[in-house]
Amino acid sequence: MLTFQEIILRLQRYWEEQGTLIWQPYSEKVGAGTMNPATILRVLGPEPWNVAYVEPSFRPDDGRYADNPNRMQMFYQFQVILKPDPGDPQERYLRSLEALGIRRDEHDIRFVEDNWESPVLGAWGLGWEVWLDGMEITQFTYFQQAGGLTLETPAVEITYGLERIALYLQGVESVWDLAWDAHHTYGEILRLQEVDYCRYGFEIADIAHLQEMYRLFEAEAQRCLDESLVVPALDYILRCSHTFNLLDARGAVGVTERARFFKRMRGLTRRVAEAYLARREQAGHPWEGRPGLRRGPVSPATPLHLPLSDAAPAAAGRAPFLLEIGVEELPAGHVSSALQQLRALVPGALDEARLAHGPIHVWGTPRRLAVYVDDLTLRQPDEERVVKGPPARVAFKDGAPTRAAQGFARSQGVDVAELRVEELQGGQYVVATKREEGRPAAEVLADLLPGWIAGLRFPRSMRWDSDGATFSRPLRWLVALLGEDVVACSYAGLSSGRVTRGPRPAGSPDVALGAASDYKATLESYGVLVDPQMRREIIRFQAQTLAESAGGHIPDDPALLDEVTNLVESPTAFLGSFAARHLALPQEVLIAVMKKHQRYFPVLDQEGNLLPVFIAIRNGGSEHLALVRQGNEGVIRARYADAEFFYEQDTRQSLEEFVPRLSSLTFQEQLGSMLDKTGRLESLAPWVGLRLGLSPLELDMLRRAAHLAKADLATQMVVEMTSLQGVMGREYARLSGEPEVVAQAVFEHYLPRFAGDALPATLVGVALALTERLDSLAGLFAVGLAPTGSSDPYGLRRAALGLVQLLVGRGISFSVREGLAEAARALPVPATPEALDAAAVFVTGRLQVALREEGFAYDVVAAVLAERGDDPVRARAAAGQLTAWVPRAGWAQLLDNYARCVRITRDQPRFDLNPGLLQESAERDLYAALLAAEAQVTPQSDVDDLLTTFQPLVPLIERFFVDILVMAEDREQREARLALLQRVAALAEGIVDLSKLEGF
Amino acid sequence: MLTFQEIILRLQRYWEEQGTLIWQPYSEKVGAGTMNPATILRVLGPEPWNVAYVEPSFRPDDGRYADNPNRMQMFYQFQVILKPDPGDPQERYLRSLEALGIRRDEHDIRFVEDNWESPVLGAWGLGWEVWLDGMEITQFTYFQQAGGLTLETPAVEITYGLERIALYLQGVESVWDLAWDAHHTYGEILRLQEVDYCRYGFEIADIAHLQEMYRLFEAEAQRCLDESLVVPALDYILRCSHTFNLLDARGAVGVTERARFFKRMRGLTRRVAEAYLARREQAGHPWEGRPGLRRGPVSPATPLHLPLSDAAPAAAGRAPFLLEIGVEELPAGHVSSALQQLRALVPGALDEARLAHGPIHVWGTPRRLAVYVDDLTLRQPDEERVVKGPPARVAFKDGAPTRAAQGFARSQGVDVAELRVEELQGGQYVVATKREEGRPAAEVLADLLPGWIAGLRFPRSMRWDSDGATFSRPLRWLVALLGEDVVACSYAGLSSGRVTRGPRPAGSPDVALGAASDYKATLESYGVLVDPQMRREIIRFQAQTLAESAGGHIPDDPALLDEVTNLVESPTAFLGSFAARHLALPQEVLIAVMKKHQRYFPVLDQEGNLLPVFIAIRNGGSEHLALVRQGNEGVIRARYADAEFFYEQDTRQSLEEFVPRLSSLTFQEQLGSMLDKTGRLESLAPWVGLRLGLSPLELDMLRRAAHLAKADLATQMVVEMTSLQGVMGREYARLSGEPEVVAQAVFEHYLPRFAGDALPATLVGVALALTERLDSLAGLFAVGLAPTGSSDPYGLRRAALGLVQLLVGRGISFSVREGLAEAARALPVPATPEALDAAAVFVTGRLQVALREEGFAYDVVAAVLAERGDDPVRARAAAGQLTAWVPRAGWAQLLDNYARCVRITRDQPRFDLNPGLLQESAERDLYAALLAAEAQVTPQSDVDDLLTTFQPLVPLIERFFVDILVMAEDREQREARLALLQRVAALAEGIVDLSKLEGF
Prior knowledge:
Two copies of one chain form a homodimer. By secondary structure, chain A is α+β, with helices and mostly antiparallel strands. In chain A, strands 1, 2, 3, 4, 5, 6, 7 and 8 form an eight-stranded mixed β-sheet that branches. In chain A, strands 10, 11, 12, 20, 21, 22 and 23 form a seven-stranded mixed β-sheet that branches. A three-stranded mixed β-sheet of chain A has the order 9-25-24, with no helix packed on it. In chain A, helix 24 (about 795-810) crosses helix 26 (about 835-855) and helix 27 (about 860-870) packs across helix 28 (about 870-885). The longest helix of chain A has 28 residues, at about 255-280.
């Protein structure tokens, strides 16, 4: 059994043998090894830097008084920085695990998307958490930015969680039981200080003292920076950071402070980074060009792989084409997106390149994106093209070609004798017929392929080498084969070839392909299923079969299935179990843990109750499956122990007691904390409730629910798993003895959470849900945070759409503008009329989308929204009624006559109608009918009322326009007539703007 | 070549294999690995604890802007704690060096006394610095106290200086050039931060901010302690300590603050220690009884050593006796002291034990103390003893023994028939003659020997194991042989045997002795010279021979020779050299460096100029001497580079510019800084100068010299080597262009520094030397710091003796009391008359010692001191004159007659003399002679004057006592006669108190 200290010693030795510098923990309390200057400074600039060290990492807020088996305010990281990327950092990492006795062929070791960002350090990177049989043991990141500066040379950062690895290797369940050495457990060494640090951070630390320290540290950091002192300045920033963390643990960081703290620390870090870079620059970057890491052992031999497939021989002059883009593990979503992009791109690109082809297959796994084209022609067809030259009269003098003709022929590469004269655009011109020979497909593809790769777009891309190419994750190999031949091209420093790589559990061996046609079968022989559809189907089938064997079924969850499909290359499902006692936790919690942390499939019985089992998909075959299962079961056990701890901690107090703690959770800097927001909900909700006609009792419930709505955000369970917000609020409200209506409303006020989600069942829930959204919209628009094309960090689209769905779905007529105005009254900042108007318009925009998606015609939607956009339910009703009118007989006539009234008066000022001037009968009849109609419809009338009322006017209008000259010579006469028509046109005002309709 | 990181990795692995826990550097800035809780806390209490770790150690004041090759504000320690003492910690340490490739048989590795104390941590220990070929590479300490608490179980603390070891292993001269790994030097990694930290600490840090931080850290430490939080409290103390160090480097710590800072930090540390102990106590000391370190490899085989000596066979019934006390390296002074004690003790002890013996030899080296006795009897002689019993009349009734007699006989173990009656103390008593058989010497010795060892006293002793035995350094083996047989005894957990140990370079092999007589020769065969006289002589001879070979000689320095003798067991001298360019430094500096740091012998040419060579004494034979020389030369080179750096730094400014910096050097807490003291010297010196009759020009020089006297204490050179105080002051004064008289006085004011040292040559120097001592005596007595029997931390004995030597040596009549009173006027604290009186008496006490040592009779000294003790030069003169009188003819008569006058009047009140009442001629003659004498002598007269004047009175006094009845009936008559005699007796007043003389 490896002791904790032996793990460290072995990792030090392993990385030393790789050629890294071995460094020491830092002399300040840091939150992570990243903060050690050996990382945060050395990753800057162009110089190579490879280093490994232990780092005790302090996160006061994570303290659990040593009561939790694997969460504590201090833990040990083992940090490795490789800069530049040595080309095979994952392999080197996997070999380091082997140095600890963890063999990749016996375990399920996976690289699962996880990106990283530090607001204090102004740093971020993309990468993975590494899973060992389901347990996160390492953070693996391609560092992109530090100190707010883009890294000249991206660095690989590998951060081992030493306790996690030791737990696994020692087979114990609590860090406190780990053997540190032969004589002492981890707990024996560290428990006392852990408890003391927790007491200090949570209970004892003097807030005023800490604030004062922060101020002094910051001031000294500034002094240092004014003198360009790098490391002393960093030290003070680290002290600021730790002091901030203590203040935070102590619950003493208000909302506005938090953002300001981060901003200040980030600003200081940036200055440190700049000062460091300047110093290295002055020194002339002395390490540039130094040798980097020692080469690792050479990859396994690369035998030419014999054809495995009995694919039908290609048609003459044709061959299958394969492009495989080899990558480090892509995020699951990126796999789908890249495949979609390739599917969209390739057919057109081949056609445009005049390369005839058979069916196109686009395949992919986390480690490879592949385009496979059947029967691709080996050569473009030849092409003839007519090129227009100078006018004939210039080109030929007396039938003989002039210098102009000769020049043209030469420029086109044809003989002057081949020039012809043709009539073009009404003139006589010389033309040449150019014959372009088709190029070999291999040549054409070689030109095209780099563009295909470069054209792939990801939500977030990264650099991994200093040549600046970007991709979702690093590219590591390229296969491009046309038949048996390599299509020679290169991209991002890689040259295409015929060598692909086998799966990770097999050690990613190099595998040379004899021909493109061997691709799929060859990888299959290694257990890699490149076709995602097939993989998805196999996973679904395996999982379903296992679920049935356990007497249950897997609830439908296509998103999870999609994700899992793109997390593995060689799926093998297995059934794990957990202790039934965990079922005491709310089922939502158990399922959330499975899905969020582990991507396991839950198994439900016929009544929909969770069974104490899970289904996980391992990447690899069925070898050593028992070991993998055991590991995964250990992980879920620990996760559930965590959850139980949270649950137990949370339920030691009533839900209401969490409300004050919302003061330390930011809603938005200017809008204050979640506690501030709670206050606003409490003041706005009764107003909304009255609008919705709630009873006094319901209003009481609503007020209570508003008070508690956000409380669960301060519970440990929700802090841990945000997706449980509302769910835990309901649970804890019930346990706290709140009325069921209140508990339900706490849950329901988040509804609908996504497209297709349920709406609140209770009116109290609806009122609270509306209140929450009105506050968010009014507030965030007021402070200028309206969503932009690409950015919607507060989810306002969702909020606005939810508002619409709530009102429409529950048939509630409600003025969004009024709601927003009322919401604005409670805001801590003034909301300009323009801002509120923009918010209302934004909601109307969502309504428009919703109505369009429901199938209403564009013009109908526009017509009703122009007048009823503020009241979604009435707009929806109007759209329905208007839609029904359109196909009716007489509609065209009605619309046409109404339009005549509108059009002739549209550009006129509004006149008062003097009925005495209406003398003609057509005038008088119309006027009389108008008065009758005006008595029937108001701006509150619905479309049916309006149109039904309007219908009798149609013949009168028609007669009016026949009999009456509107634009009479006499001004008074003219204005009276216009005023009459204006009154007619105005009948629709507030109801529908028929002018938006087609045919108007 | 071992890189720096490889050294760390190997040490970790080595100690891990020994069974220590491998720990990590601390997350705070510490001054030493000791401050890591893994030491400062874990050494407390009874539980075993073995740990090893790296510790970057920060000492802002040592920063040199990376300009110095081996001094910097941050360096790396490798810290090992072994608790309890495993019994062979030195061996384990030496094997760790072997793990780094440093073989003890190829190098001179030595354990040189060096004790350690931390005022902040309330901690101390005794031990050594370990020298590798003259270079200090490790601190090795038996930790005795921490947090102000005595350690229940002493701990071994081994602190490797990693840079030093690396310098050696890599053969480079500057730490900045060390290879950290294969690609980077130490300087490349650390130089930037080193320079920045220096700039921060010395120039940039905001003093007010640091002070405020200190206050906050202290307050938080208090809060933590009020809640018994151990490690968080320690963290804040460490922050206090580092902040204090920064303030200190910044020159911002005043005198009174310094002591207060230390006291406060020590107080906090004590509370932490107590809190920690309480927590472990509560936990029930869970580690007690855990297995400790794995056993090291077994010692080399222990062959029975064959007799090597041809010692004469012992007389019949007699045999040589050997006691060898095997120890870890004793301080050189302790060796001498222990040998002296044994020499004083053993003969009497053997005699008292009735063990006849031949010559006694007491030998010793740093590792062994030996008593070797020739021809010790194997058996005590039998002894007869007469024991007094009951009175005869009780013992016998009618000639028959009573029960009393029988009881007595039984109690004495004799037959009742053997009782006799003897006359004792004037009565008849029964007596028994008890015959006690002599016990075997082995038995007697077995009883005695533990007492001999236990009785050895050292200036400072230590415990090393929890059994509580104390000694100078740990005892490791005992040999006790009488002839061929072991004298079985035990002490401090050791049992005596016949196995001694060879020298360290040979690996300290166990060596079994066949007989006591083999001892000296056996060890000699290993190169160990146990006889210190022989060792001393060999060293002297070797060194002298080498010096001559280099064309020079070694200045006489018995103290150094004694010390070196007791630093080695197997001396081998060698000649090393250094670059002649270093001779540009003052010779005193070069020699001080050699002696203080290295215990080298300097070599002078005939003119007394230093040659660029040195002689060092290696412990071991002549093998690999070139390597050892090379190492030592490297060390002295580095030392001289250091000294040059100091010299260069110091001479960048004038000496005067150092004066203000004296404000940060404490003289004594209540008496202020050295700057305060300088101020007092400046005010007192002119007064002293006037007393000494200095010219106005000389007075100017004196004032200037007083101003500069202490300035060199603030120079780097003197900070580094205190012994150069005055020497550097003179040097720097000259370089600063001060008048030669001033420069000389700055040097001379320290004279005489030790018994036999020169006195100042200039009167200005004398005046300043007196001034300095008067201020110290007055001040330190005023604040209650008079020396006690064992403690004289301020060297007041030396100061007082110096005062005496100055006055006597230069023949200056001077009232010490007046001088002290004047000095007191400038003190910042009031000096009570009692205190000043005590100071004066103390000086007189030194004078007494000096006069006695000069050979004056006790009574003569007493007689003159009684009247002239305040003025040493006059007392000395008086003693000389009085001594000359004593042997003269007529002295007894003179003294007798004077005594008669004194004696008869001594107990009387003082009467006024009414001459009119003196009517008898004997009275009148005496009176007339008295008047004549009184006209000759005054209290200022010297003894010769007095006695010469008195001589004519002698016959008159004789006649007076014959003719006159002093105690006449008539009161007036009587009082007149007594008054007359009183006036005669009073002639000596103020001159000499003849009543103190023998025979008076």
